[in-house]
Structure to design on (98 residues):
């Protein structure tokens, strides 16, 4: 391997280490700050952002299946049931709406 490849690996390793170290050092301060409530909602917000970005520019059947999955999630509060129903709705709509 060339020197530039080794430097790239070393730089990426240093960036990864620095990111983890900063999270470790700032984690306690964030938990004790007035913004701690954001950390409790962060996983859900990330999931919503990922789902919303994956729905952008898709067919209407995808939106209908996603809306059905949201309704089932609200009623059942069960991840497995929600995912199964969303997949079943998408497949069923794929047969009906081509």
């Amino acid at each position: 391997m060339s020197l530039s490849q080794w430097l790239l690996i070393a730089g990426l390793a240093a960036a990864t280490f620095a990111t983890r170290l900063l999270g470790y050092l700032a984690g306690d301060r964030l938990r004790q700050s007035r913004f701690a409530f954001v950390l409790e909602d962060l996983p859900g917000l990330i999931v919503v952002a990922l789902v919303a970005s994956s729905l952008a520019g898709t067919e209407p059947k995808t939106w209908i299946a996603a809306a059905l999955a949201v309704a089932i999630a609200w009623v059942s509060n069960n991840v497995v049931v929600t995912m199964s129903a969303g997949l079943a709705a998408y497949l069923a709509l794929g047969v009906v709406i081509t």
